[in-house]
Amino acid sequence: MACPVNNTVELNPTLLPLEWLLGTWECDEPGEGSFPTIKPFRYTETLHFSHVGQPVINFMFNAFHAESKKPMHRECGFVRMQPGTNRVAFIIAQNSGLVEIEEGELTGQQLSLQSQQLARISFAKEPYVKQICRVFQLRPDGKLEQTVSMATDNQPLMQHLRITYRRSS
């Protein structure tokens, strides 16, 4: 049995600066992924940001291979804001076995985050991710753009993913 979700709960005032992020976002065109150690790929993705009245936003990101439609990357977690500031934290668990805390700042409708802590399962695949930087930008046309940069044991920080979404609900 699914847990009930009450969509009529008022947004916690701490999160008002992030209200523009709430809802479901779907990519218009496939995003592009690349990194020196993998073959470039295209993917589709749906983002879902919700709340239950707490000073936390819940999120789920689901990516699929653009051609085969097979499930790829999954991320879920929570977004928090430090009250009275523009400081934001993402607490993220990934299906790859990586858990991270990203922190950064909200400037207008741009959210820039950098990994502060990374942990992984003991049998994670090498090379290990060492750093992640993520930027969400709400564009003037109402679309949401996400870029993700990554560094590993053997590669410096560089762009890994780029995708644009439209709000679907």
From TrEMBL:
It catalyses: peroxynitrite = nitrate. Residues 15-167 form the THAP4-like heme-binding domain. GO terms for molecular function: nitric oxide binding. Pfam families: THAP4_heme-bd. It comes from the Eukaryota. Transmembrane segments: none annotated. Coiled coil: none annotated. InterPro entries: Calycin, Nitrobindin, THAP4-like_heme-bd. PANTHER family: PEROXYNITRITE ISOMERASE THAP4 (PTHR15854:SF4), THAP4 PROTEIN (PTHR15854). This is THAP domain containing 4. It comes from Oreochromis niloticus.
